[in-house]
Amino acid sequence: MCLFCCRIFERRMGSRKFSSYLLGTCTIATILEICTVMLLSQFDIDYHNGGYLPPGLYGLIFPLYVNYFLDIPRIAVSSFIGVPLTGKTVTYLLGLQVASTSQATIISSLCGLVAGIIYRKNIFKVQRWLVVPRFIAKSFDKLFGWLLNSSEPKYKQMGATLELQRQEQTDILEQQYYYNRTQEFRQQRGQGYSERLVDDGVNADGILGYFLRQRQRPTENLEPSQENIQILVDMGFEHARAVEALRSSSNDLETATSILLRQ
Q1: Within a 10 A sphere around the Cβ of 232, how many other Cβ atoms?
Q2: pLDDT tens for residues 212-250?
Q3: Which of 25, 47, 87, 229 could form a cystine bridge with 103, CB 3.0-4.6 A?
Q4: Whole-structure pTM value
Q5: What is the superkingdom listed in this entry's lineage (predicted)?
């Protein structure tokens, strides 16, 4: 589950760079674990089950938490007794559960975190030395690429976390619902407005592209017009809410309708 939550990094880095990252962090984590066991043995401290650390993917998982903490945005979802809960909280709790199994797992987990910091900061130029050779990457790509490759996502802008991806899917469904409402409105009021509203066709790509351009379009501070207010009222929205949405969107009808649908 922890690896699944960190799958975004392979898409960001690319397969070769990501495999080099795993190779480097696992190597560094293994060296740190050996040094830690040797150091504890000098002081006759046995936190590691008679000289052995527990086997597992600690050197693979916990270095990813460094990038996960620094690169994945923190989006507040709710709070519990004053402590904010975000979309990343569950991932941190999973890692904490894995790390807190025993004293030996704590040592392995800490070594993994330190390995992630060393590789990210490129201390001792580790990113230059611990890298997967290009010919090996090409060989594996030819042997297994056909089995693991998949088609590109339909929408290029993809959120880093599952929560962001769900929000993007919700926005697309919301925009499609907006389009259906305007189609119904056109049948009642005649053509003109909806054709001006959707200029890229009736497919989802056109709808999404239109709204992305509308968000980037500069607006001026304009008072709501009676025509736009009446259009929103005819679409089923309350008069007061329509005026407030138009005022907050500088009399932009499309943005105001999106605001009302979100509410």
Answers
A1: 21
A2: 555 555 445 578 888 888 888 877 788 888 888 888 888
A3: 47
A4: 0.57
A5: Eukaryota
- Give the 3-state secondary structure of residue 225: coil
Residues 174, 212, 196: CA angle, nearest 5 degrees: 80
What's the pLDDT score for residue 231? 84
Q: Are 175 and 212 in contact (CB under 8 A)?
A: no
Stated as kind and residue range, the H or E segment containing 177 is helix 162-189
Closest C-alpha among 158, 22, 160, 26 to residue 91: 160
How far apart CA 81 and CA 217 sit, in angstroms, is: 41
Mean pLDDT for 146-161 is: 66
Q: Is residue 154 in some structural domain? A: no
Measured distance CA(149)–CA(145) in Å, rounded: 6
The answer to which of 33-42, 83-92, 198-207 has the lowest mean pLDDT is 198-207
Give dist(CA 28, CA 126) in Å, integer. Answer: 9
Same domain, 25 and 143: yes
State the burial class of residue 105 (Cβ atoms within 10 Å of its Cβ: 0-12, 13-18, 19+): middle
Backbone angles phi, psi at 64, to 5 degrees: -65, -25
Last residue of a domain, one of 148, 180, 212: 148
> Among 32, 85, 94, which Cα is nearest to 64's?
94
197 & 128 share domain: no
**Position of tokens 């992305």?**
212
**Does residue 156 sit within a domain?**
no
Task: Give the separation between CA 13 and CA 167, rounded to whole angstroms.
Answer: 24
